[in-house]
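User: Before I run my own analysis I want an independent prediction to cross-check against. Here's the chain; please return only the structure tokens and, at the end, one sentence I can use as a sanity check.
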Amino acid sequence: MTATVNNTPLKQEKTLPLADLVTAGTIDTVLLALPDLQGRLKGKRYDAGHFLTRIADHGAEMCAYLLATDVDMNPADGFALTSWDTGYQDLPVRPDLTTARVVPWMPRTAIVLADAMTPEGTPVEIAPRHILDRQLTRLAHHGLHPKTGIETEFVLYKGTHNQPGHHPLHPLTTENLDYALDHNPTSDRFFRRLQRALAKAGIPVEAIKTEAGPGQIEVTFPYGPARDACDNHLLFKHAVRTLATRSDLTPTFMAAPETGRANGLHLHLSLWSNNTPQL
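Assistant: Structure tokens:
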């Protein structure tokens, strides 16, 4: 792991804030995205002007069931937050404007991450970003802050579930391509599109490599502040899914998508105090 993550909002526009981009006509759509319990981004598309005049300062509402579903978006039992018994009410959602950035893989679009709040104005306890913030606060009380580097693996499959003849899906490659440099044209195009898009979004990539498993890919990122690293990983997965679908490919980050095949997510953590590593 090398250089610290540079997570400047709207990095590719350098110094222009979101309002200036909207006024200039560079941005006409803003995605307000809430991380769910499956590590996915869910939310709404807003007209950029409406987002600036209403949502940026006053927030929005999203159904509480977004934090109480299974992987197939079915409402799950056992949540105190919301259920069939209590009703699936809306929750206030507060934009975190420090996360705003242009989305290079979507035309004239920016994305802003959001935090789920209770009606009383406190963070929802099971919201993933709040769970992380709570742990960061505990460390800060001891004068510590973590830096995190992420290695993440996923498998690319040919086609999509909606295409005839592509069920079951087959891995994009079948042979052992661990550390290979002679990628097929489809893989090479996807890697290039992904790397360029992430760089423009302010999410630097250290390396992309193919693994031994069929269709398996590993991406590594520079280490940096834990919250930035986690936010970037959410956006990375969103980019992978979007760009893969446009290339008639299907990615999965599942730990074990098939018997005998596994994806890893490696978290490299170090604890710092006064810019000095402690552990």
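Sanity check: Confidence is low (pLDDT under 50) at residues 1-15.
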